Each structure stands twice: as C-alpha cells, then as structure tokens.
Amino acid sequence: MATDRLITTPWSNAYGLARTLVALGTAATLAFSSTSTLFRPVATIGDFPTCNGATSAAVFCLAGDDRTGLTWLKWLCVLALLIVASGWRPRLTALPHAYINYSVFAGISITDGGDQIGLILSMLFVLPALGDPRRWHWLPPPDEAGGKALRVRALIGTSGLIMIRLQMSFVYFNACVAKLPHPEWYDGTAMWYWSTNSSFGAAPWLDTILRPVVSTALGAALMTWLPLFIEIALAAALLLPQRFRYTALWAGLLFHFSIGLVMGLWTFALAMAGGLLVLCLPSGARITRPRTSAATPSTAVRPREVTSL
C-alpha cells in the first residue's frame, strides 16, 4: 500500500528575494566597474577575457578584441540581470542568469568571493526556477492540485534549495575553520589589521568611528571573534531549531552588511545574503508584512505542500 508523502512547494517570495539579491550583486559589479577595470591584462595570464578552453564560452568572448563591444556586452548583461532581479518569468531567466554569472566569473580579470558564490547559487537556482510556473517570483505559489508534473517540479526545485543550504553551511564552516590556524584570529588582533589596511580598510568617514574601537584590546578582540562565532553558528544552522535560525539569519545579514560597509565588498554581501535566506528560512516560507498583533511573526512559516508521487 503506497503512502502519500508531502513535498514543500519551493516557489516562495523568499526564494525569489534570494534570486534577486544574487542578480543585483553581479549587476552591481558590472555596472559600477569600468570596462578597463573589468578586462585588464594580468601578469602571467595575459589579456582578459582569456577565451581559452572552457572560458571561450563566456559571453564576453563574442567581442574579441573590440573594447567597445565589451562595453555593449557588459551593459546588456546588466540589463538581463535587472530583469532577473525583477522576478519576471523565472523559467525564462534561470539559464541566462547562470550563464551571465559564469561569464563574469570566467571573463573578468579579478574575481572575488561574491562572483564565486554568485555563480554557484545561480546554477543551483536553475533547478527550482525552471519549474517555477509563476509569472513573477513574488507571487504566491500555485495551488496544490497541480498534478504529477507539478509534484515532480516541486521535488526537483526543493532538491536544488537543499543543495544551496548544504553549500552555504560548508562555506561558513570553511570560512571559520580556515581562520583558526592563523595567530591573528585566535589572539584577537585580525580585525585591527583588516580595518586599518589601505586596500580593505574602512573609508575615512567610517575609520574615525572604527579606529578608536579596534585600537583597544577588548574592541579588537570582539570584532575579531564575533565573526567566528557567527560563521560557525551559520554552519550549524541546519541543526538548530527554527527559532534560532531566525536569530542566526539576522546576525548573518548584519555581518555581511558590515563587511560591505567596511571593506566595500557589496557583491559578496548581496550574494551571501541571498544564500542566507535559503539557509535560514523554512523551506517554502513566505516573507509577509507584520500584522497588527505583536505576537504574530513577520515571516510566515507555513509553507504549502503538495502530495508526492
């Protein structure tokens, strides 16, 4: 006798917001960086885009040596990413989103963690997005009575979101553990070095606030060790009760906002924020407006479910 099982419908506005944040991060990299900055020669490698082997599939290779063509392609990619961020037709924009992120990762001269995590997330978002039947990813999920095809798409989409959760857990675990062998992290001085670094340090207006804090032993230690606690908590988020995941979510968002503010890594901050939503919110949960009752949470935690095969 077959037993019916329930699959959470993955197509919520929370997953949509995550896609939007990742797309905006890549769009910001392209829009606020000049063509000469994105595609400059690199020692021992040569000119960019390199267009050798697998990297020849990047969209920027279509321009060849034409710098004007690179500029046009860059802005076409920005336009496409803004369409992805708008939430229109996830089924149609899923593959272009992943392709553009691959092109950025493979084609620009200097990538950072935001470009890498953006590529991984956009590729995994393909699984739920290709099965998303909505016109906009902000709309409510479809009714449960969608037949076998809907159930199969829901299963595939949920699998993609689970892989994103596991990927994010690994990223945070590695980020924490990789710091521990370095004495600057366990003796509490690392953030003094980072915040006063001429390349990654705070802007002058913010430095006037941070410098007195990191110049004290307690302030430097707290700013160094607190990120480690946040990262290991996020690595273990899947093992925590949901009420603690909400706390970890807000801590993580504040953490990445601070990184963007101090170090200017906004692409990284936006991409990680998108991954955090998938990691910490219940599968299929919708983000809703707060109700009048103080006891009512602002995030719905009753995801829709469809009967499996």
UniProtKB/TrEMBL annotation:
Polar residues composition bias: which ranges?
Answer: 290-299
Q: Where in the cell is it found?
A: Endomembrane system
For membrane topology, the record states: Multi-pass membrane protein
Region annotated Disordered, chain positions: 290-309
Per UniProt, which keywords does this protein have? Membrane, Transmembrane, Transmembrane helix
According to the entry, every stretch annotated as the HTTM-like domain falls at 7-284
Return the NCBIfam families for the record: export_SdpB
Q: What is this protein called?
A: Sporulation-delaying protein SdpB family protein
